Acetyltransferase (Vibrio hippocampi), 162 residues
Amino acid sequence: MYLRKFLAHEAGVISCWFSTYNEFLLWGGRVFSWPIEHAEIIKRSKQQEIEFFTLTDGNEVLGFIELQHMSRTEIRLCRVAVSPSHRGNGLGKTLISLSLAEIKRRNQYQVVTLAVFTKNVTAHKCYCSIGFSAVDKEPKFKEFGGERWPLVQMELSLIKSG
């Protein structure tokens, strides 16, 4: 398995991974409309401050991640997803680990940040197992249809101590 830059034709595959509106919101928030249009994913992939990567075994797209350049020293992990047919096999951890290796290889960023909805227990556990820690930052919730979804802001320092 390896991480590589997203290819536009993969948008159709990724858009099919979310079968319900709530599942889609856990992944994409308000960034995309529901149901997801392939063109929306492709359009976002072309934004200057954003990079899309896929986890692949060479034949199939197994995972997807967005890296958002927040500043010279901060990069943010967004829209992390694993193909429904491959969930529960540790591929989320593999996807995050390979993404962190890519970020570290650039030798530019000091911190990696992300936000996860508290109801996304599996993702939260995954991030904690890799070394992300909760931080006291806003926003602490997003509102969808009048319902507040609590968020945990997390970060991982890339600065070597000692």
